[in-house]
Queue: 3 jobs
Job 1
Amino acid sequence: MAPTEIKRRIEQGIPGARAQVEGAEAHYSAVVVAPAFEGKSRIEQHQMIYALFREEMANQTIHALALKTATPSEAQSEKGL
């Protein structure tokens, strides 16, 4: 699966999300900023993303997906998001 496809699916699946995705050969990392994360724990934020790729993770199309997530206000206060 191409990083651009993962990015597209995250941005379509989570309203208002902006994603940056890198990786290859079933190992990826993503930085995702979304207003939908407001009021949710990091675990809940990550679960929202993993739910979009349940099938790909089960069949090992995606073996690893490292996530860094933030709300827009958190992203403004953290450099690099």
Job 2
Amino acid sequence: MAIEVTDKNFEEIVISSSKPVIVDFWANWCGPCRMISPIIDEIGEEFKDKAVVTKLDVDKNPTTTFKFGIRNIPAVLFFKNGQIVDKQIGTAPKSRFVAKLEALL
């Protein structure tokens, strides 16, 4: 299961993490976001000891959304050592998200 991050805890959970982090920028009204949501949750379970998998609701967290220039969702950013190292804009098969994450481990 993915961890819900917000404008308030983003720095602590994502930027300060010693593990690689996935951030899924999503919204309730976004159909493609709902399509990948179960995939992100599965990855969160499968990699819970190796990575941090999170979701950020763009409507409720405009500061972080703006800071990272998110204009299209779903947008999945991959962080390592507090820096964006990869991203996936739009839907994709689970294998693509997993490959991008495994490259950071």
Job 3
Amino acid sequence: MSQNEIFHFTVGQLVEMLQSLPPDLPVLTSGYDSGYENFYQPEIVKLKHEPENMHDDGEFQFADEQDKNIFHAVILQRVMRDD
């Protein structure tokens, strides 16, 4: 199995993708627990900051239209595997 079959993105591919996005957007990643995963194509989403959340819920959450202090961020969402 070659590296091209294991990994979803190389640094060059990620840099090229990120260069097409607004340069002032924050970048966040999904997380929780241990280890590392590939990630889906970066996307821009509306979020809200909830710093009091438990660590396993993350301090940033998807925002609804009625939420205050909404901001946009680029998300590197880890691949979710069902195995």
